[in-house]
Amino acid sequence: MAGSIFFRILSLLSIFCLFSGCGHALPEAETERTDLIALQEAAGCCAYARIFCLRASTRAESEGVLDAARLFAALAYSQQIHEHLYVAAIHHLGGSYHPSHRVVLRLAATPENLRTFLSTVNYAERAPISRLLEQKNRYAARLMVRHAASENRARHWVELLLLCSEPQGSSPYQVCPRCGYLTSSRYPDPYCPQCMASADRFRSF
Question: Taking the model in full, what pTM does it have?
Answer without folding.
Answer: 0.78
